[in-house]
Design a protein that fits this description.
about 250 residues, TIM Barrel, about 15% strand
Length: about 250
């Protein structure tokens, strides 16, 4: 059995823009619904949702039937959480709240086996196809993608240093927490926040590190892509359902 190919990482490193969907609602059926929508990638979020490695496993299994890479955001930059998600088959992890180059290096290390990192060794995991992938332990690093999320003013001050850490495959800008850090809590679309995000995309492009962002306003998402962002989430599943339900109910209220 061959090593699973990380299509998201291949396209990212080739400089191809990819548009994705944030998935916060647990369940294999829901994951399958989202996986078949036609996005370039989906992301299972375990930081701000009820999801955990068990529900992510169900999501990964459901998404596997579709030609869409499934990324996962751990609840924290923690090697134990990373290890569990990698073992159930995640190949791309987005580590939240990375503030320093040292934290970025720690995130990368949690995705690599020794001597390059600290990932624990399990040979009978879903990631290894239960021991059926020859050479998995030596080849997994090439197909594992480590993304780090910068979401404070302090992190933006160290952006180039964080982006230049070996093994960091991309840097994702988080507008909501960045807004809070800039004194604009609850205002991720404020012009000051948007300007900081756009500046970060330009700076990442200047150092050659792929930039990503969550931009649910279509016009701003397109602007971020035009500025050079290579992985852009343009929607959140729960928001799509909630706003669609609101609109439908409103259409029938007197």
């Amino acid at each position: 059995m061959d090593m699973p190919i990380n299509r998201f990482k291949r396209r990212l490193l080739a400089g191809e823009p990819q548009v994705g969907l944030w998935v916060t609602m647990p369940g294999g059926l829901h994951a399958e619904l989202c996986a078949g929508a036609g996005f370039d990638w989906i992301l299972f979020d375990t930081e701000h949702s009820p999801q955990d490695p068990v529900t992510v496993l169900a999501g990964l299994q459901a998404a596997a039937a579709y030609p869409v890479p499934a990324l996962v955001r751990p609840a924290w930059n923690d090697p134990v959480l990373a290890k569990r998600l990698l073992d159930v088959g995640a190949q791309t992890l987005l580590f939240p709240f990375v503030q320093t180059p040292a934290e970025a290096a720690a995130a990368v290390a949690s995705t690599r086996y020794p001597p390059e990192g600290v990932r624990g060794v399990a040979t009978m995991s879903r990631a290894t196809r239960f021991g059926r992938v020859p050479g998995y332990l030596k080849g997994a690093g090439a197909e594992t993608c480590a993304l780090v999320q910068v979401e404070t003013a302090e992190a933006l001050g160290r952006l180039e240093e964080i982006a230049s850490v070996p093994g960091v495959d991309g840097v994702f800008v988080g507008p909501s927490d960045l807004a809070a850090s800039l004194g604009r809590l609850g205002e991720p679309s404020h012009p000051e926040v948007a300007a900081a995000c756009e500046d970060a995309i330009r700076r990442l492009g200047a150092v050659g590190t792929p930039a990503g962002i969550l931009a649910t306003d279509p016009a701003w998402a397109r602007r971020c892509l035009d500025l050079g962002a290579l992985f852009v989430a343009v929607g959140v599943d729960a928001a799509i359902l909630a706003r669609g339900a609101d609109a439908l109910a409103a259409a029938f209220r007197g």
